[in-house]
Design brief:
single chain, alpha+beta, NADH Oxidase, four-stranded antiparallel sheet, 15% strand, globular
Length: 174
Amino acid sequence: MKFIELAQDRYSLRKFSEKPVEKEKLDLVLQAGSLAPTACNNQPQKILVIESEEAVAKLKGCTRYHFDAPMALLVCYDNTASWKRSYDSKDSGDVDASIVGTHMMLQAAELGLGTTWVGHFDPDAVIKAFSIPENLVPVALFPLGYPADDAEPNPKLHPSRKPVEKTVFYNRFS
C-alpha cells in the first residue's frame, strides 16, 4: 500500500476485538517508534506497554477513552533528556513523543491493527497507577488491537478534512 493510501484509510478505532496482538506485531510497532526522528536525536521517549489484565484495569481508572482495547501504549518523554530551544527554553519532548506516537500509529495500521490517539486522560492518575518517575511526562495513550468485525470510522469525523488550499500558505499567511 502506498503511504498516502495508508494515511487516508487509517481511522481512530473505537471498537476493538478481543483478539490479542501478536508479539511480533507489537515489536514492529515499537520499532517504528524507535525510528522516529527527535530533536537533536535525543530520543527522550519512554513507552509503557500496558497489556496485562491488571494494567488494563488500572488504565480504565485513568480514562474513559480506553475503548475496551486489549492493550495500550502510553507515550511519555523524559524531561531531563529532551532538547530545549535556546531562545525560549521550549521543551521539544511533547513534539518528539507525538512524532514517535504517529510512527507507531501508522505502523499499526499497516499491520492491520487499530489505534486511537487519546489525549483525554488524567495524567496524575496515570503517573500514580503506573508508578511513573517524576521526570517522565505522559503525552498520549494509544489503545491498540484488532478492529472488531463491525468497527468503522466515525462518519462525521473521518472524511472531514479541510482542502489543502485552506491549510497551506506560500510565503505568507493570509
